């Protein structure tokens, strides 16, 4: 008691945890554990067993640190909507593997549609021309969703095209991530209101914490014009993402003209409403109201905490078990969960060739360290890793 009295500062009106009696400390631990149970049950959280055990041990052993950390970082970014029952009108009749169509139908994603055209871009210059052309041809509305807008020639060219569209009577809306927008032309973007362009920041840092989490960011890149044409891919609206030289990113982008654009417009509308944490329930538009085409088929597969299921992850794991000959995965960051890694290992044992293409060095050192040797052996199964040396630090678009 003499030791604790000398070391503990005496602050009037402050009650230090070390002065709690064993009964009071036990009650605090109990309250912390009850809080974990209630938040987990009410929020419908389904954690990995190791993560659940870690949180319980942290709250039990270090309650004064563990409980605040759990309340800040341990809850969902958004509460996923409830799953609905089976739909009698699904699965759809469409081109593609039957297993994939059945799975996506069960996950309530929009149905596959045929479009007038789908064009992938060969380089950044072609991608930028296509983006500006879509905005220039818009007649009624243009919706833009991006993580960042650069304070450079590309960012200014895109913003100028949007302002010109608004001046000729087109409704223009821009949804920009509040964190990603800090690194770019924030001042320029903020002046868009005076030009007739509607601007909304996705998940502002200073807001009611009940309406979404600060670490929930919007990384979608979409430009939709009149629900008839869409530009998308992995490029932010900055020069580095359209530069094919040594200082740019290796990225993918494409333009779809057809009903898929109407589905993307509905998805962007939901993001617009969810910018401040309001999740919109219900089906996405199926594109039936759009003009019918007999061109290439495509399917929009959205993913995020605002959906009832982790659609892309479910599709990746299912594809690993369904693959018969080869899986090609191209990604800047390879830190898979155990379920996906195990599925790939099982595929290797079945004789499926797996080609994993990762950069020799990405732009996130921690991801490189977590990746380790990228594609080593596990349980006797082996993949074929390939390390790309072209623009090793500037490669970011994933594809499987």
Low-confidence stretches: 1-8, 373-377, 389-393
Main sheet overview: 7 strands, mixed
SS element count, helices = 12
The general outline is globular
Strand content: 5-15%
Notable features of this structure?
alpha/beta, 7-stranded mixed beta sheet, 3-stranded parallel beta sheet, 36% helix, globular
Short description:
By secondary structure, the protein is an alpha/beta fold. It has twelve helices and twelve strands.
Give the secondary structure arrangement, pairings included.
Layout: H1 2-7, H2 22-43, H3 49-61, H4 63-73, H5 98-106, E1 113-114, E2 117-120, H6 124-137, E3 141-146, H7 153-167, E4 171-177, H8 186-190, E5 198-202, E6 222-225, E7 229-233, E8 253-257, H9 259-274, E9 297-298, H10 311-322, E10 326-330, H11 338-349, E11 353-359, H12 365-371, E12 384-388
Parallel strand pairs: 3-4, 4-5, 10-11, 11-12
Antiparallel strand pairs: 1-9, 2-8, 3-6, 6-7, 7-8
Helix pairs in contact: 2-3, 2-4, 3-4, 5-10, 6-7, 10-11
């Amino acid at each position: 008691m003499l030791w604790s009295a000398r070391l503990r500062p005496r602050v009037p009106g402050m009650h230090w945890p070390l002065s709690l009696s064993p009964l009071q400390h036990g009650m605090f631990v109990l309250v912390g554990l009850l809080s974990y149970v209630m938040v987990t049950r009410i929020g419908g959280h389904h954690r990995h067993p190791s993560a659940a055990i870690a949180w319980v041990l942290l709250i039990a052993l270090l309650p004064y640190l563990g409980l605040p950390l759990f309340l800040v970082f341990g809850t969902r970014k958004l509460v996923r909507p409830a799953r609905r029952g089976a739909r009698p009108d699904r699965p759809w009749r469409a081109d593609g593997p039957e297993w994939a169509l059945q799975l996506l139908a069960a996950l309530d994603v929009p149905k596959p549609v045929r479009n007038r055209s789908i064009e992938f871009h060969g380089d950044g210059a072609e991608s930028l021309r296509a983006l500006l052309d879509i905005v220039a041809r818009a007649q009624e509305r243009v919706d833009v969703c991006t993580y960042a807008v650069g304070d450079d020639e590309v960012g200014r060219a895109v913003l100028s095209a949007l302002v010109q569209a608004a001046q000729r009577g087109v409704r223009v809306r821009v949804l920009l991530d509040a964190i990603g927008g800090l690194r770019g032309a924030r001042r320029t973007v903020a002046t868009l209101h005076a030009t007739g362009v509607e601007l909304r920041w996705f998940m502002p840092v200073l807001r009611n914490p009940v309406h979404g989490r600060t670490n929930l960011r919007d990384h979608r890149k979409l430009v939709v014009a009149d629900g008839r044409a869409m530009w998308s891919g992995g490029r932010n609206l900055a020069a580095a993402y359209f530069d094919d030289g040594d200082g740019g990113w290796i990225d993918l982008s494409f333009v779809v003209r057809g009903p898929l654009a109407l589905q993307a417009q509905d998805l962007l509308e939901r993001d617009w409403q969810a910018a401040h944490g309001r999740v919109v329930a219900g089906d996405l538009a199926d594109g039936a109201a759009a003009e019918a085409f007999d061109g290439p088929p495509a399917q929009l597969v959205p993913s995020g905490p605002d959906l009832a299921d982790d659609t892309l992850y479910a599709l990746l794991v299912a594809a690993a078990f369904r693959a018969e000959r080869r899986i090609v995965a191209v990604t800047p960051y390879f830190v898979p969960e155990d379920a996906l890694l195990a599925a790939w290992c099982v595929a290797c044992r079945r004789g499926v060739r797996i080609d994993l293409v990762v950069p020799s060095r990405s732009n996130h050192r921690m991801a490189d360290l977590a990746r380790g040797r990228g594609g080593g052996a596990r349980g006797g199964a082996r993949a074929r890793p390939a390390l790309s040396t072209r623009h090793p630090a500037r490669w970011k678009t994933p594809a499987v």
